[in-house]
Amino acid sequence: MKKIHVGFLFSHDYEKLKLSIPPVYAGADRIFIAIDENFTTWSGNKFEVDLTFFDWLKEFDTENKIEIYRDNFYIPTLTEIENDTRERHLLSLKMGIGNWLIQVDSDEYFLDFEKFISDLRKYDDFLDNPEKNKIQIAAFWIILYKYTEKGILYVDMPMKAIFATNYPDYNLARRTSSRVIYTNNIVLHESLSRSEEELRFKLENWGHKRQVNAEFIDKWLKVNETNYKQLRDFYYIEPERWKKLNYFPSTDIKQIKEFVINSKVLRISKAYLNSKNFGQWFKFLFK
Q1: Cβ neighbours of residue 215 closer than 8 Å, sequence gap 6 or more
Q2: CA 154, CA 249: separation in Å to the nearest integer?
Q3: Residue range 132-153: mean pLDDT, rounded
Q4: Is the pLDDT of residue 79 over 90?
Q5: Domain assignments of the chain as residue spans, ordered by start
Q6: Strand partners, 137
Q7: How confident is the model at residue 154 (pLDDT cuts 50, 70, 90)?
């Protein structure tokens, strides 16, 4: 027990696992990939799979850390977000309570997973009796919004996101109702930065399908590297949550990682972290 277990969800954008698995591979004790046995999305739609992906996976897994978990993850009577939450819960049960349960989506790329693990290990005592000492651990996304001809538009401030827990009583995707501990770790999130066809398929099949605002796709299509400074409010649910975009003149993920690492604007301050963590500690002090 007290192992570092990392879970991934396999769906229509499974090819992105070739970018998201390598950053966590060395630091993980075990990696679990949840695959719907019928290759069905949370909306009940089928997706095609090139089976050579599994050849890549077998070749990459030199330490035999990766386990495939196949199950039925589409229940017609559930909404998309309910299917999302259910799959993550089943995956975490497979990963084993008593270990650190880290879930990373296929389009999320850790900049320094070893540091995230080091931060996580400070709270190993929460694994002794996880059901009575529930916590969740957050890092921060840099959200890659849209590829352009020569670069990429991104949301110009880090956004908090939950990645780990000691007890998976999820109530919304990978979120629980327990205390959050914020860590100074950055994850690139290729959430919306894909082709129009790929994005439209995602919007019809992901957990947030019923929450997407009507104006989102038109604004996403309109914005580019020449007009992004004139536009505002880009979030797909509550637009004002992502007020502004910025631009990086490269589409190379390695270069983008270096840019984020060296950016002063995209850093998380100690004062901000301390404030957030104190607030969470105080909120749950008497619960």
Answers
A1: 239
A2: 11
A3: 95
A4: yes
A5: 4-283
A6: 164, 181
A7: very high
